């Protein structure tokens, strides 16, 4: 029997179907059979591309985290002043969350549901944030940013964007450019010395 060749289009269709189902139904209500049906492939085809559902979710997470990282650090240069660098990264992240809503929602779920991705994938995904972590460390050394845990820095600066995006998605709040400026100022004021 000849070995089946992999089609990148099928793999992408499976990832997109998973993204949609997890975002709309939750991790546990996105069985492989539904993923296959939405992707337009047989359930057996999934196993050509992924070992199991966990592998599928992990790969989807890592690919989205890589896209997030590319967007977050667009036009970033390490020689900019700390505040300017942070504002550039923060606004890039806001732009990603506003324009890549499905991907941003999925990444938020991965952050909030401890069992959704495995620890190895979580640690690999964290590497995508290294330039931001390095910037915060530089800001702490320069006496510009509070000397607190990077988790606290993230909680007070980046995580609020997820809340604002959710409120906008529910049509409870419109994130205008003025609101974005106010949100950045609040984030910066929360961490600056």
Give me a quick take on this structure.
The protein has 193 residues and is an all-alpha fold. The protein has 11 helices and no strands.
Question: Key terms for this structure?
Answer:
193 residues, mainly alpha, Tetracycline Repressor, domain 2, 11 helices
- What name goes with the CATH superfamily of the largest domain? Tetracycline Repressor, domain 2
What's the shape? elongated
- CATH class label of the largest domain: Mainly Alpha
Share of β-strand residues: under 5%
Overall domain count: 2
What distance lies between the first and last C-alpha atoms, to the nearest angstrom?
67 Å
| Number of H/I helices | 11
CATH architectural arrangement of the largest domain: Orthogonal Bundle
What are the segments in which pLDDT stays under 50 over at least 5 consecutive residues? none
Q: Classify the fold: give the CATH topology of the largest domain.
A: Tetracycline Repressor, domain 2
What is the N-to-C succession of helices and strands? HHHHHHHHHHH
Rounded mean pLDDT is 93
Q: From the alpha carbons, calculate the radius of gyration and give it in angstroms.
A: 19 Å
Helix content: over 70%
Helix/strand-derived class?
mainly alpha
Number of strands: 0
Q: What is the topological layout?
A:
Layout: H1 8-25, H2 32-39, H3 43-49, H4 53-72, H5 82-99, H6 101-112, H7 119-126, H8 130-141, H9 150-157, H10 159-169, H11 177-191
Helix pairs in contact: 1-2, 1-4, 1-6, 2-3, 4-6, 4-7, 5-6, 5-8
Model description:
The protein is 71% helix and 0% strand. It is mainly alpha-helical. The chain folds into two domains: 1-50, Arc Repressor Mutant, subunit A (Orthogonal Bundle); 64-191, Tetracycline Repressor, domain 2, CATH 1.10.357. It is elongated, with a radius of gyration of 19 Å. The relative contact order is 0.11. The mean pLDDT is 93.
């Amino acid at each position: 029997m000849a070995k089946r060749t992999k089609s990148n289009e099928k793999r992408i269709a499976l990832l997109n179907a998973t993204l949609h189902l997890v975002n709309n139904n939750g991790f546990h209500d996105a069985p492989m059979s539904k993923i296959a049906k939405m992707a337009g492939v047989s359930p057996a085809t999934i196993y050509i591309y992924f070992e199991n559902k966990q592998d599928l979710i992990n790969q989807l997470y890592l690919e989205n985290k890589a896209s997030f990282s590319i967007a977050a650090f667009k036009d970033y240069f390490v020689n900019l002043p700390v505040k300017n660098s942070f504002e550039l990264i923060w606004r890039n992240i806001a732009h990603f969350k506003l324009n890549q809503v499905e991907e941003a929602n999925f990444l938020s779920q991965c952050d909030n549901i401890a069992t959704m991705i495995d620890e190895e994938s979580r640690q690999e995904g964290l590497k995508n944030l290294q330039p931001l972590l390095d910037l915060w460390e530089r800001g702490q050394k320069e006496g510009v940013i509070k000397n607190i845990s990077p988790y606290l820095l993230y909680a007070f600066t980046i995580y609020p964007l997820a809340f604002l995006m959710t409120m906008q998605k529910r049509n409870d709040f419109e994130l205008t450019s003025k609101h974005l400026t106010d949100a950045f100022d609040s984030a910066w004021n929360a961490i600056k010395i």
